[in-house]
Design a protein that fits this description.
Helices cover 61% and strands 0% of the residues. The chain is mainly alpha-helical.
């Protein structure tokens, strides 16, 4: 995932401040957790997996 983050955030966008980078990174991670289906989770997104396990709020 580190490579994915670098390619999606750091290399393709210019950020004027550290807070702007942090905000963009959080948006990316939120989108990743709600949209990316992972083989290791049997095709579920991280959010779906947590819901299935009963760990989500």
């Amino acid at each position: 995932m580190n490579r994915t983050i670098k390619e999606a955030i750091a290399r393709h966008h210019h950020h004027d401040s550290h807070d702007q980078l942090r905000e963009h990174l959080q948006d990316f991670i939120d989108a990743y957790n709600f949209a990316r289906h992972l083989k290791t989770l049997k095709g579920l997104t991280p959010y779906e997996y947590l819901c299935k396990c009963g760990l989500s709020a």
